[in-house]
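User: Can you help me understand a structure? I only have the sequence.
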Amino acid sequence: MYQVPVAPVAKSQTHNEAEADGASSPAAAAMLPVFSPRPLATLRLIATSDLHASVMPYDYCANRPNSNLGLGAIAKQIAAARGEARNCLLFDNGDFLQGSPLADYAASARRRRAHPVITAFNTLGYDAATLGNHEFDYGLRFLSEALADAQFPVVSANIATRLGTSPARDETLVPPFTILRRQIIDHAGHAHVLRVGVIGFAPPQIAEWDRNSPGGTVQTRDILAAARAWLPRLRAKGADIIVALAHTGIGPLDPEDRTENAATALAALPEIDAVIAGHSHQVFPGPGFAASSVVDPVQGRLAGKPAVMPGHSANHVGIIDLQLERCTSGARRWRVADSTARIGHRTSDTAPSAPALQQALAPDHRATLAWSRRQLGETVVPLHSHFATFAPSAALSLIADAKADHIRQALEHTSWAGMPLLSSASPFRVGGRGGSGNFTNIAAGPLRMRNLSDLYPFPNTLVALLLTGAEISDWLERATAIFNRIVPGSMDAALLDDSVPSFVFETIPQLSYAIDLSQPRRFDAQGRLINADARRIAGLCHGDRPVVATDEFLLVTNNHRAGRARLQDPGSDPQVVYTDAARVQTAFSAYVQRRGRVGSAPKRNWHFLPMPGTTVTVATGAGATSHLDDIASFRPVKLGSDIEGFTHYRLHL
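Assistant: Let's start by predicting it. Here is the structure, written out as tokens:
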């Protein structure tokens, strides 16, 4: 049974609160009795991560119910996990406020109501949460207002409003940690008080990704530097065990400074007892990770500590069981004697679940449906993403046109008006870790708000950068990192590198060029130079004129992509010519409403250099069969479908 806090002790203590528990002081610690290593107790940690506002059993983009979607779909697993253990804590690991039309509506609504995800967490009784990078997508004011309704502590140790002389002197945006004081029942049925320290972390790249966001930004610390500063203080304040809510991926044991993926290195710190990882949308423990001396993908251990990464969009639940025993000396009353970690999967049961959750969110759901169904205009061609990572796409061209139109109007009466204007676009819903249903497929006809969220799911703001021809060429070279190197004459090699996120790829429809797949990558997936002599981009032209290194262009992108550009090349800081508070979705909506009818056949502005006698394979969604004319030049051959629902094709280069 789920255990409530011991009355009358408050649910949690932050680092700013007075040390009400006398056992946390050195004098009190010296007076503690020496305990027997018995009795034993089990504490279950249940975790979600990267929910991306998927809380209702409804596909807003497709405008139909789907019992396999949302937090409600895994509420049964959460309830079952709680029912199996006497002592449970429920956590969320970040990226919960953004990612669905429900979230987009909540950010645009004028009425004052708790954010639907916060309502969901309150309803299910979450014990604590941390911030992910996407919590900042709608701005600091929105984030602050959303968190104000949380009935649970939200912590993060490496995100600050002001950096001090050391991490421990930072003014953190939210408390760096909390101590949950809980009553637990041991195996003999006796009650005890357990003090669970919970500390949070997020990718330090947030400071750059959101640097161009209007309304203020944050400063960040390296995850490990912040951890080493705050963990001893958390232990000194009386934490018996410490759980790291780490919105960060699983990386090396000894990472570089300000690494984006620090979960393994965090687990190696002596103060940490368990790690909830996330951010990369992967599942751990699971076959997606190679075993090593510090990563055990079968038992679920990082550097010997129990760890889980529960996927994304409410498709999994992470469960860690800590076997606790009483300490025989020192200030700690309990320690972890053993542990297990596993992933809980959604069941195929389609019966209604979490009625309390659906009831609490019913007003938000109805309002989102009305908002998402509003017609803005119409498209004269289908807009889909089935081939968007390897062929010109009408959907990407439309997004790029809408972005360019907004900036063109904004610069109309400025000195920049005569500059050549380019606009980039990236595919987002193209399968990958999102599954075989993660594709955009909009028929010709009415375009509604839900379709815009489908085409562009992120609330990024628009940014125009001044770039040279050389920088534009490298911009496109970085986009080609998604492709494997293909040996001429080879048969059925995988075209796409599954380890590279799809958003790395982007196209600039105002330019024409070819991609030489026989060449090695010039940049890795993080955009770092790895082969200075390699060039995949060939014949780069603007109109009928080749692009030369000294040319100058204005490139319309978004705040996140501009931040990534600075991180990829620290020696470069592109000039921001224009930015405002307009989100891409807002500019997109205005463009469609103003034009009424939009869309055109894909602009054949780029192609792969021919490789006679060479074939590659790709995986896409089942709906791709209706759009094969878009890739007729590849002479596609259907190879069949796999157990995950992806349809595989052979393409002739």
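Now, to help you interpret it: The radius of gyration is 26 Å. The CA atoms of residues 142 and 291 lie 41 Å apart. Let me know which part you'd like to focus on.
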